[in-house]
Amino acid sequence: MHANTLSKYPRLDSRIVEALAQGTPLSIQELAKHLHHKREDAVNIALKSLLLKGQVQRVGLSHRYRLSPTQSARSVEKHLLCEGTAHHRTITM
Q1: What H or E segment, with its residue span, contains residue 79?
Q2: Measuring CA to CA, how many Å separate 35 from each of 56, 78, 86?
Q3: Ramachandran angles phi, psi of 6, nearest 5°
Q4: Model-level pTM?
Q5: pLDDT single digits (tens) 5-32
Q6: C-alpha count within 13 angstroms, C-beta hemisphere, residue 23
Q7: Do the beta carbons of residue 59 and residue 50 sit within 8 Å?
């Protein structure tokens, strides 16, 4: 399933949204608990994409970004703040 082919998403996983909205970075273990749902949404797709790249330990969300169930995964990913394993610093996608 390609992110750019999706036009509408089910409601976002509330636990992910709440944690990210509060500025709480999530570890890969914490994210993994929420990424096995059958339904797909923009946040889950974006997070899976980042985790599959293997360079992310913790993920947060830019405090200025408002999540919407109609956002594309690519637009969500651009606003995720990622702490990479290589440089151990927070980068903005």
Answers
A1: helix 73-79
A2: 15, 19, 23
A3: -90, 135
A4: 0.35
A5: 333 334 445 666 566 656 666 665 666 5
A6: 2
A7: yes
Alpha carbon distance 78, 67 (integer Å): 12
Rounded to whole angstroms, the Cα distance separating 55 from 76 reads 18
Nearest CA-CA partner of 7 in 72, 54, 60, 62: 72
17 is written with which tokens?
């949204």
Tokens representing 86 are 């290589």
**From edge to edge, which strands make up the β-sheet containing 90-92?**
26-27, 56-61, 80-84, 90-92
Per-residue model confidence as pLDDT tens digits over 29-55: 666 565 555 455 666 677 666 666 665
Q: DSSP string spanning 22-75?
A: TT--EEHHHHHHHTT-SS--HHHHHHHHHHHTT-EEEEEE-TTPPP-TTS-HHH
Tokens matching residue 45: 């797709």
